[in-house]
Design goal:
By secondary structure, this protein is an alpha+beta fold. The protein has a domain of 98 residues: Jelly Rolls, CATH 2.60.120.10. It has three helices and eight strands. It has a four-stranded antiparallel β-sheet. Strands 2-7-4-5 form a four-stranded antiparallel β-sheet, with no helix packed on it. Strand 4 and strand 5 form a beta hairpin. This is Fe2OG dioxygenase domain-containing protein.
């Protein structure tokens, strides 16, 4: 798990460098610093969706936008992950070995609206179980 966390942290920093360049910021490290820099924490979560005999009556993860800057998601091959685009829910297609990167509310604010946070949700299926791994980078809170 330590190696996986280190690699996710590197990926997060790489994404923030690319996005900093795209926004024309003076430093490639600007966005990474704005979300905690070296002091940021990675939070990992795994969502498990068991088969459900009546999936139309259950919500796996209700529609929401992520409050953090960026979410890195490792989906599985079971359908259920969706994004909302132009008022319609669209299934996220599984691509073996690919990660899904969601822009969150914090990054929408940091980019002054150039990038938009999106609504996502995950729905249960009748016959298949699913599992998604998620990684959030958040500033470290010191009390």
């Amino acid at each position: 798990m330590d190696e996986y966390s280190r690699e996710l942290s590197k990926l997060f920093e790489c994404l923030m460098e690319v996005l900093s360049r795209d926004l024309g910021l003076e430093s490639e490290n600007s966005l990474n610093e704005s979300v905690g820099g070296e002091g940021k924490e990675l939070q990992l979560r795994i969502n498990y969706y068991p088969p459900c005999p009546q999936p139309d009556l259950v919500v796996g993860v209700a529609a929401h936008s992520d409050p953090n800057a960026i979410t890195i998601l490792l989906p599985d091959q079971i359908p259920g992950l969706q994004i909302r685009k132009d008022g319609a829910w669209i299934d996220v297609q599984f691509v073996p070995g690919a990660l899904v990167v969601n822009i969150g509310d914090q990054f929408e604010i940091l980019s002054n609206g150039k990038y938009s946070s999106m609504s996502t949700g995950a729905w249960c299926t009748k016959t298949s179980q699913g599992c998604h791994g998620l990684c959030f980078a958040v500033p470290r809170v010191i009390w």
